[in-house]
Amino acid sequence: MEGDVRVLGTNSTILFVSSTTQEFTVSKLRPYARKWENKTMQMIRELNVKQALPNEAPNCTVHHDVPVVVFSTGGFVGNVFHDYTDILIPLYLATNQYTGKVKFAVTDMSWWWIFKYLPMIKVLSSYPILNLDEDHNVHCFPSAQIGLKSHKPLGIDPAQAPNGYTMQDFRAFIRKSFSLERPSTTVVDLKSGRRPRLLIILRRGTRAIVNEHELVAAAENIGFMVVTADPEKTRELPKFAHVVNSCDVMLGVHGAGLANMLYLPANATVIQILPWGNLGF
């Protein structure tokens, strides 16, 4: 939306203010990327997007000179695969081109999630986040994007992306955000004297590796320096991102935790174990 855009957070309303009388369809939008999942979308707060004439629109109480991007931190937040597929990658695609000169307006606010990924959010936007669930002001913007678009699971389609962004570009953005030191793996052989680092992602509920100790011993016997990470350790960003980036190989049973591969250096190896049986996915 380009022009006079007014955001009324607690009223769940976004107004496009124009003196033209052209037909404008009133839309009800839920600003989350998984549009094809009706059940999921019902968990997301609905926003009313409509047109208003200048004499009908409420007066601005806060003026902004940068665009706004409206999105939700509801849905499946907290699952690292969905954090990236549904929010972080789409948010990068929508806003990286602004080089920080864009404001985020968030509904279904999960502050713990914002703080977890704050290093990435601060690179994308130089402005405080607007919490639409609690703000009573009328915020006026020169343009707005309402909602985010996901191209595919944990991926980017450069043909659809602004400026032809790729996953390589996104991973460079991750390294910048978390100050990760290794852009790519280094050669490991007998001459280098360095043992390759193997990270094993462990699950403690379903799909757990029952012979964990034997697996670690076997990997060490063939020359790996083994690092293990249970669910508790994976929550400690950015510390865990640096651990992953220090490794050459990641191994784990199929699950969201493998999405942490995004912190690996380029040319690293990922080994996914698929359990035998009816997995249900």
Automatic annotation (TrEMBL):
<comment type="pathway">
    <text>Glycan metabolism.</text>
</comment>
<keyword id="KW-0328">Glycosyltransferase</keyword>
<dbReference type="InterPro" id="IPR007657">
    <property type="entry name" value="Glycosyltransferase_61"/>
</dbReference>
<dbReference type="Pfam" id="PF04577">
    <property type="entry name" value="Glyco_transf_61"/>
</dbReference>
<keyword id="KW-0808">Transferase</keyword>
<dbReference type="GO" id="GO:0000139">
    <property type="term" value="C:Golgi membrane"/>
</dbReference>
<protein>
    <recommendedName>
        <fullName>Glycosyltransferase 61 catalytic domain-containing protein</fullName>
    </recommendedName>
</protein>
<dbReference type="GO" id="GO:0016763">
    <property type="term" value="F:pentosyltransferase activity"/>
</dbReference>
<dbReference type="InterPro" id="IPR049625">
    <property type="entry name" value="Glyco_transf_61_cat"/>
</dbReference>
<keyword id="KW-0325">Glycoprotein</keyword>
<feature type="domain" description="Glycosyltransferase 61 catalytic">
    <location>
        <begin position="160"/>
        <end position="271"/>
    </location>
</feature>
